[in-house]
Every structure is written in structure tokens, then in C-alpha cells.
Amino acid sequence: MPMKATKSFILLICLAVIFGTFLWQSARSVSGAPVEFPRAQIMTSTPWPDGSIYHIPESGDSLWIISEAYDVSMRDINILNGNSPEAVEIYIGQAMLIKRGEPATATPNVSPTPMPVTPSPTVFKPSRTPIPSATAIPSPTATQPPSTVQELFGDSKRVGWTITGISLLGIALVVFFGFLQKPKP
User: Fewest Cβ atoms closer than 10 Å to its Cβ: which of 38, 39, 68, 160?
Assistant: First the structure.
């Protein structure tokens, strides 16, 4: 029995929704003609010379009101401004592109524009750069012979072998004095 009551209740709700929709549609029309809702009351912008239209939102504006005023869909406005097509947020004072303008076309004929020539005296300004002087001819410089430290550590290969030799000598001394030589009792 409860199952039959649930089905009857769902059927009653469906009929109420259908009847309510019918009543709402008939209330919207006057003598069979649909009622026109008034357009949004905002100040629309004048198109730029290229035909593009920008709108600067003010307090109380919404994306829906702007789209109704310019007769452009909210989706198109969002796409033109780089937003998600489903976005509804706008910011007061931020210019919104409503319609993209047509690019300017180049004129095929070039009209020459005469340039008036105004003679002007040439002013001589002395340069602050000194006059170049002669450079002395380079002479050979005597080089000192390398010291023993430079000979020993002057090459990276020698440095490596020297450090390896010193390390091996240190290990040998530690092994000899630490492990092999027995302390005297």
C-alpha cells in the first residue's frame, strides 16, 4: 500500500508542475501575444572609429543587464574578454569588450604630403674626446724562472700525484706506529 501511495503522490506532483507551467505561460500573454520585458536601463557606449564597443561597468550593472542592453549574449562577451563562457562576474571600472571592431583597411593610393624644408645653420660643437696619442711599441719583458713550489704544484696532474704520495706516506706511518710497533712493557 505505501508503494501505491508514493506513485500516486509523484503523479500528482507531475500534474501540478505541468498545470502550473500552462498557467504561467497563459499569464505572460495578453490576448495571445507574448509580453515583452523591458530592456535593461543602462547607458550604452558609443562605438569607436573601428566599430569596436567597450563598456565600463558601474555599480548595479550585471553581465545579464549589459548583454541585454547591447543585444549580445553573455557567452560572447565572456569569450571576447578571455573569460570562461559560463562566468558571470564583472568588475566595476574594468573595460569590457562588447563587440570587436573591423580592422582598418589600407588605402591603395598614397597621397604625397609635401614636407616644408626649413634651413637651419649647422652649429659646430667641439668634441670632448681628446686627440688620440701615439701608443708605445711593446717591448719584451724578462720572465723569472719558476720556483720549486710552482714546479711542484704548477700542474694539476702533479698536484694530484703529490697529494696521493703524501696521503700514502701518512697511512704508512699510522699503520707502522699504530699497529705494527708493540708498546714496550
Answer: 38
CA distances (Å), origin 163, targets 109, 158, 168, 183: 83, 9, 9, 31
Quick: pLDDT tens for 87-124.
Answer: 888 888 888 999 888 876 776 777 777 777 777 777 77
Number of domains in the chain: 2
| Contact call for residues 50 and 102 (beta carbons, < 8 A) | yes
Is 15 within a domain?
A: no
Name the burial class of residue 96, with classes exposed (0-12), middle (13-18) and buried (19+) by CB atoms within 10 angstroms of its CB.
Answer: buried
Residue 42: domain span: 32-103
Give the confidence band of 29 by pLDDT, cuts at 50, 70, 90. Answer: very low
Q: What are phi and psi of 30, to 5 degrees?
A: -115, 120
pTM of this prediction exceeds 0.85: no
Q: Is residue 165 part of a domain?
A: yes
Q: Three-class SS of residue 76? A: helix
Q: Is residue 50 part of a domain?
A: yes
